[in-house]
Request: fold
Amino acid sequence: MSRIAILSDAHLLIQAERFRDENYRSPRGETSLKNFSNVTSQVVAEKPEAVILASDMFDERE
Reply:
């Protein structure tokens, strides 16, 4: 049986949503990046054969 992980809606650029300064991260942005890091660590620990990144991985800048 194959093991596949599916990650979606990460919104990794939410910290840049309304800010032009690339070095600034909003509290929502920090939370988003921390959550994604936690999830990817869990996925790595499970050793899936494939990882699918689906839907809204990044937000557009204004």
Notes: The radius of gyration is 14 Å.
